[in-house]
Design goal:
- The protein is an alpha/beta fold.
- It is 32% helix and 15% strand.
- The chain is built from 8 helices and 10 strands.
- The strands form 2 sheets. It has a 7-stranded parallel sheet with strand order 1-10-9-6-2-3-5, sandwiched between helices. Strands 4-8-7 form a 3-stranded antiparallel sheet.
- The longest helix is centred in the N-terminal third of the chain and has 17 residues.
- The chain is globular and about 50 Å long.
- It binds 2-amino-2-deoxy-6-O-phosphono-alpha-D-glucopyranose (GLP).
- The site of 2-amino-2-deoxy-6-O-phosphono-alpha-D-glucopyranose has 14 residues, from helix 5.
């Protein structure tokens, strides 16, 4: 694991965009894994800007979402498909074509079967780089505390804490937040060649401490990613504020910059 600590969310997004673009550029047939939530939005803005400048394109790059709310139509702004189409496609987007954006089907008659279908799709995709956020309770995708650390894609019940955290996207109405999601499992996520996890703000500080310095535990699902051989964690000073070994991590980062 490599941890980069940045003065603010803008500097973090600059570095994330640089890494995503460089990693995709290095592949002849790249594929991308994308996350939703507010944290990756500045990264997506930079990918759009790079596309506008003719330096980057997701045209012909199959792109896979991490998760989706069960029961939300893609027409609803809170649906992750809607959000990703908004962030990545269209004339001012990244070149991504709608048919190349793969998301779990939120309205599938049988969400459990749909989770299996999606797992097989992502498992066969050889994702080059997977962008990740993290929940305050350490969830990744919608892998909530207490789930299997070796899970494949599945239907997950959102915890009360996650539903409260995500209510801000639903006019602060917790009752409007869906109770179920389809999420890539932690093992499915770990199939990607590189993982890049972004976190900003003090609300994420405890989850980042557990991810970076804590024991691997189902209590903090993100800790399963400690087993991944190419995990880069990018945080701002606030999200890094509970790290005990920040000094050592900064030295490791400075040393690794010669290689990356
Ligand atoms: C949601 C998503 C996660 C995301 C998390 C954090 O629950 N399922 O993929 O990482 O929220 O979101 P935010 O970046 O808005 O804090």
């Amino acid at each position: 694991m490599l941890v980069g600590i940045f003065p603010d969310a803008d500097a973090l997004a600059d570095e994330a965009a640089r890494r995503v673009i460089r990693t995709l550029d290095a592949e002849t047939s790249p594929t991308l894994g994308v996350a939703t939530g507010s944290t990756p939005r500045p990264l997506y803005a930079r990918l759009r800007a790079a596309h506008a400048a003719g330096q980057f394109s997701l045209e012909d790059v199959p792109t896979y979402a991490l998760d989706e709310y069960v029961g939300l139509s893609p027409a609803q702004p809170q649906s992750y498909r809607h959000e990703l189409l908004d962030q990545l496609t269209g004339p001012a987007g990244t070149g991504l074509r709608e048919e190349n954006l793969h998301t779990p089907h939120a309205l599938a008659d049988d969400p459990w079967r749909e989770a299996q279908r999606y797992d097989a799709l992502v498992g066969g995709a050889h994702v080059t780089i997977q962008i990740l956020g993290i929940g305050e309770n350490g969830h990744v995708g919608f892998n909530e505390p207490g789930g299997s650390l070796a899970s494949r894609s599945h239907v997950s019940a959102l915890t009360e804490s996650t539903r409260h955290a995500n209510a801000r996207f639903f006019d602060d109405d917790v009752s409007a937040v869906p109770e179920l999601s389809i999420t890539q499992g932690l093992s499915t996520i770990a199939l990607a060649e590189c993982l890049i996890l972004l976190a900003t703000g003090t609300a994420k500080a405890r989850a980042i401490r557990e991810l970076v310095e804590g024991p691997v535990s189902a209590h903090w699902p993100a800790t399963a990613l400690q087993w991944h051989q190419d995990l880069v964690v990018l945080v701002d000073e606030d999200a890094a504020s509970e790290l005990e070994f920040a000094h050592d991590l900064r030295e490791q980062w400075a040393a690794a910059r010669h290689r990356h």
